[in-house]
């Protein structure tokens, strides 16, 4: 990209160019690798055509899978892990060394990409244990590939993330960065998970899977014999339900796995009604999740990166109740991004108030706050005379819904919809403290 961009006469690659180039790359990867994996997993041409049609028409494929989400990559890794598992199990006479080596590398890459990956490959792993008892060379090949890929991943992460002084080999020996271990330690802490939000253990079953699959869930009743993809989905859903923090995207790989295993109703009337519901479901959710849900995060970050420092007047920006903003979209601007995630409102106000300082300081400072317009706590804070602050709206996107801030108990269904939809949008605020000598 750097070589292409220099042809335009500019030295640095524009962040938005990189962003859209990555989106196109993910689309190509999803289009090629996902379809290819489904083609290999399903032997029947008729069932294969149905699986490809359902997967390509799912809103998950043309929204989430075209983003550089770790869950989108996990989907591709899970699919190809199942493909390699199937190739190993189907090779009755040889040890399938090439497929074993590929699976070992995929397993290591999957674990380093997301710590949730082992939950999806537990059933295939059980099947492989019986195979490896008869083909030990296959297990040795898989283990060697896994260890080599793990070593490379640790070396890359240590080189990229470690700021300590010393040579690379010294850091690798004394302070290696083991990403899966750090992720596991973080996600087993209740205090850390409470920042993101805690959910009941049945959240994935009553909310996540219906949101991801919609009418396709009804087709699960037609499955007479559980296939390896279905067992993989069941294993992941059960194991990930043990974690207090649950989001639909954690089960993203379940979508192609389920859609490649279901069959349409045999009755023509039922099939027609189901197809209509499937089209409506994906059209509505495609617009909602592909355009509006957290849709202002990237435009806001791009806008901040395009502003001159003297125009903004601040070097710290707090992000509240949004997805984690991609820092690289700032294009190297000296703006400190502080992700408050789902922190409670009082804690957010405390952090921002500390950042703007007090009137007794050498001078009140300014800070930026990026928050959903639907956060009514900001209205109360703006009117609070005990902590007089100036809120200047610098930028706003109307294409933003914060669906992670659903509070039916507090607002009621009607009030919640009116707040989220009627006050949709993401706002960049410039906040400073009002003092007696401040005009």
Overview of the molecule:
- The chain has 439 residues and is of the alpha/beta class.
- It is 57% helix and 8% strand.
- The protein is built from 20 helices and five strands.
- The protein has helices at residues 2-6, 15-41, 45-57, 70-90, 97-113, 117-120, 122-134, 136-161, 168-174, 179-187, 190-196, 203-213, 228-240, 254-259, 268-292, 297-306, 309-312, 345-356, 377-382, 408-422; strands spanning 316-320, 336-341, 366-372, 389-397, 426-433.
- The chain has a five-stranded mixed sheet with strand order 2-1-3-5-4.
- The longest helix has 27 residues, at 15-41.
- The protein is globular, with a radius of gyration of 25 Å.
- The two termini are 47 Å apart.
- The relative contact order is 0.09.
């Amino acid at each position: 990209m750097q070589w292409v961009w220099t042809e335009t006469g500019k030295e640095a690659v524009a962040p938005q160019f990189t962003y859209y180039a990555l989106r196109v790359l993910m689309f190509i990867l999803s289009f090629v690798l996902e379809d290819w994996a489904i083609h290999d997993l399903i032997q029947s041409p008729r069932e294969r055509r149905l699986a490809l049609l359902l997967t390509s028409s799912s809103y998950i494929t043309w929204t989430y899978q075209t983003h550089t989400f770790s869950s989108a990559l996990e989907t591709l890794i899970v699919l190809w892990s199942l493909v390699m598992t199937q190739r190993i199990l189907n090779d009755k006479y040889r040890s399938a060394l090439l497929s074993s080596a590929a699976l070992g590398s995929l397993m290591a890459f999957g674990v380093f990409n997301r710590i949730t990956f082992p939950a999806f490959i537990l059933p295939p792993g059980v099947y492989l244990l019986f195979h490896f008892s008869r083909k030990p060379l296959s297990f040795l090949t898989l283990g060697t590939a896994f260890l080599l890929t793990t070593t490379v991943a640790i070396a890359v992460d240590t080189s990229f993330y470690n700021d300590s002084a010393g040579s690379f080999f010294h850091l690798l020996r004394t302070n290696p960065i083991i990403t899966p271990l750090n992720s596991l330690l973080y996600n087993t802490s209740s205090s850390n998970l409470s920042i993101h939000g805690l959910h009941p253990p049945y959240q994935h079953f009553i909310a996540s899977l219906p949101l991801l699959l919609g009418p396709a869930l009804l087709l699960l009743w037609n499955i007479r014999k559980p296939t390896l993809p279905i067992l993989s989905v069941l294993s992941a859903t059960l194991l990930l339900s043990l974690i207090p923090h649950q989001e639909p995207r954690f089960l993203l790989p379940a979508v192609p796995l389920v859609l490649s295993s279901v069959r349409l109703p045999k009755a023509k009337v039922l099939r027609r009604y189901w197809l209509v519901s499937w089209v409506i479901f994906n059209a509505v959710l495609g617009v909602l999740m592909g355009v509006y849900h957290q849709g202002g995060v990237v435009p806001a970050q791009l806008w901040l990166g395009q502003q001159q420092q003297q125009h903004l007047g601040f070097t710290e920006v707090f992000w509240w109740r949004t997805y984690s903003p991609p820092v690289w979209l700032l294009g190297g601007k000296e703006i400190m991004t502080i992700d408050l995630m789902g922190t409670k409102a009082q804690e957010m106000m405390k952090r921002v108030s500390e950042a703007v300082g007090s009137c007794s300081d050498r001078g009140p400072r300014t800070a930026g706050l990026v928050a959903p317009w639907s956060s009514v706590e900001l209205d109360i804070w703006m009117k609070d005379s005990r902590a007089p602050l100036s809120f200047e709206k610098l930028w706003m996107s109307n294409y933003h819904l914060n669906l992670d801030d659903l509070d039916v108990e507090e607002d009621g269904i009607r009030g919640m919809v009116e707040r989220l939809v009627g006050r949709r949008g993401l706002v960049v605020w410039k906040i400073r403290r009002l003092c007696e000598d401040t005009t």
